[in-house]
Design a protein that fits this description.
311 residues; alpha/beta; Nucleotidyltransferase, domain 5; 2 domains; 5-stranded mixed β-sheet; 9 helices; globular
């Protein structure tokens, strides 16, 4: 994003970051490429609601933005989604099911009448990766793998700052959740569900009346809970083993990690690094994201500005 030839800075870029529990709207400054702090609006979002309810909530966050912005929006959206046409493909994944087959782009443009001419959608992990490449830990790396570790594993293989979704050098669709490890789908092991399930097998059944969530398990691991520490180690060592051949094939020079689980960096980093080096000696640096909250907004803004016309 650059200053216009007239010398006047172009209007800020409106962006949306849509997740399973929240939607964030912001204006991204066209000169600094960073969100304007006073414009960032985060609202709860029920991904199990009816289609109109979901679209109404997203639009409510969008119209809360100050006027005077570009009318081309960048929209980061989880998959499965048809990013070229703006149509949801959510089937059998436990969220946004009501948007399956729905023209999300048309629904939002109707609700944003007069404020949106075009919506340029991109995968939320790709948005994070582009943002980290523009203003974070991936900057300066021509080929890099970016990961978001949360409920599952989001991923984006970037070449010269653009996501790669096809070809023999990346997994199917360019996303690692299609991979397997130890003979099972990757997210059976590396996910909120997988880590909790493994902990339940390791922990003393009499130790607690409830299965702790991942953030509580991380706290327990740091306090010396051997079962919690092993559940984390096993998950992220396994992730490293699954990723190593693809990192070599892609010739990535760094792995950048964000997402809620990355907050437990002292548990994630050593296990992921060990898994990478155990398979073929892959020794690329594993880096914590520098813009974990802003990166998806930055990436969506650049996508809106740099991508050919979309619906």
């Amino acid at each position: 994003m650059t200053v216009a030839s007239t010398g006047r800075a172009p209007a800020p870029v409106p962006v949306l970051d849509i997740g399973g529990t929240h939607v964030t709207a912001a204006l991204v400054d066209s000169v600094t490429s960073h969100p304007v702090p006073s414009t960032v609006t985060r609202m709860p979002l029920n991904s199990h609601a009816a289609a109109d309810g979901i679209l109404d909530t997203i639009a409510r966050a969008a119209v809360a933005l100050p006027a005077g912005h570009s009318r081309c929006w960048g929209v980061a959206m989880p998959g499965p989604f048809d990013y070229a046409t703006g149509i949801g493909r959510f089937t059998g994944i436990g969220k946004f099911e009501s948007l399956s087959g729905v023209d999300v782009g048309a629904g939002l443009r109707q609700r944003l009448a007069g404020r949106a001419e075009r919506l340029r959608f991109l995968n939320d992990a790709d948005a994070f990766a582009i943002g980290e490449h523009r203003a974070g830990a991936a900057a300066g790396h021509d080929r890099v793998l970016c990961l978001t570790l949360g409920t599952g594993v989001g991923s984006s293989f970037l070449s010269s700052g653009r996501p790669v979704h096809t070809g023999t050098r990346v997994p199917p669709s360019g996303h690692v959740h299609h991979l397997t490890v130890h003979g099972r789908p990757l997210e059976d092991t590396v996910s909120r569900r997988g880590i909790r399930t493994h902990y339940a097998r390791l922990a003393d059944p009499a130790d607690d009346q409830h299965l702790p969530d991942v953030h509580e398990m991380a706290a327990r691991a740091k306090e010396g809970d051997a079962a919690a520490a092993e559940a984390f180690r096993y998950a992220f060592d396994s992730l490293g083993q699954a990723l190593a051949p693809w990192i070599d094939r892609f010739e990535a020079t760094a792995v950048v990690v964000g997402g809620s689980m990355a907050q437990s960096w002292d548990l994630v980093h050593p296990a992921l690094t060990a898994g990478l080096t155990s398979v073929g000696g892959t020794d690329v640096p594993v880096l914590a994201a520098r813009q974990p909250a802003e990166a998806p907004l930055i990436g969506a803004a650049h996508w809106a500005q740099d991508t050919p016309d979309a619906p």
